[in-house]
């Protein structure tokens, strides 16, 4: 943030350095996802990435979009807007707080244009095999958008073979608000329409043949809009260097050990966790309780922060947490006899 302020304070003179930092961040994000830099764009949010995927499809009456009922509410909000155009919403039900890849694929047919799925569930930490889902969707002619906001920075992710992936950077990636990493496959069908055109998405700002000859970038850059969030990108570049220096594999191993310790400790307290074993989750442990608000207040008074809404408590240990932190949490929970 201090670096950004220094460069911004130089006015247009500082602009090239901000552009260089953006290039660095794009390369680091590409390394994180095991893809090419040109297939990475910076958007404002995970939801904006989903909006790009939804609006890139030329929807026709009778088409359908598939997603699970455990997705973040924004998915249902966005899909609901398509209903006015005759697009069916196919909502796959969770079974006992779990959704399976097979159930998602079973909902896909020849009229499915897009599948929306989270790599790691925000509700319970369940991790899905999005590559398998994508392969099955392609067999039926459908594309897949992957919400990776609860995954990037805590589990190893390769975007190769996926269609669209988006993840806000203010969570596990230790960035700031207002920037998301967006991936678009270089193999997307040429029939996909451009959902909008911004000056960053075109190859020439002042084309010699006039505005009617404008040419979009053939890669993910065509989805970028106006002036980028240089402040957020400066923070992101720094955060990505940290994450990659530590190593995502090492972070994942560390976090899963904390998840397993949390799950075991909750079991001793008689609390049933959601989402399955630690090996099948991201860095999220959740449990249902009617006392979620009371637990939230109690832990907050003791300096421990959790997510407590919708009748559940979500615990999210990360690279900066220790086993002592988990033991402290469990001791604090035990004081309430939840």
Radius of gyration: 21 Å
Summed up, the helix count is 10
Question: In angstroms, what separates the terminal alpha carbons?
Answer: 41 Å
Compute the number of structural domains: 2
CATH architecture grouping of the largest domain = 3-Layer(aba) Sandwich
- Quaternary state reads single chain
Write down the CATH topology of the largest domain.
Aspartate Aminotransferase, domain 2
Which keywords apply here?
single chain; 338 residues; alpha/beta; Aspartate Aminotransferase, domain 2; 7-stranded mixed β-sheet; 10 helices
Describe what you observe in this structure.
With 338 residues, the chain is an alpha/beta fold. It has two domains: 2-246, Type I PLP-dependent aspartate aminotransferase-like (Major domain) (Aspartate Aminotransferase, domain 2), CATH 3.40.640.10; 248-334, Aspartate Aminotransferase, domain 1, CATH 3.90.1150.10. Helix content is 36%, strand content 14%. The chain is built from ten helices and eleven strands. It has helices at 2-8, 15-33, 46-56, 73-82, 101-106, 130-139, 230-246, 248-268, 292-301, 323-334; strands at residues 40-43, 64-68, 88-92, 112-118, 143-147, 164-168, 180-184, 273-274, 285-288, 307-309, 312-315. The strands form two sheets. Strands 1-7-6-5-4-2-3 form a seven-stranded mixed beta sheet, with helices on both faces. It has a four-stranded antiparallel beta sheet with strand order 8-9-11-10, covered by helices on one side. Helix 6 links the parallel strand 4 and strand 5. It is globular. The mean pLDDT is 94.
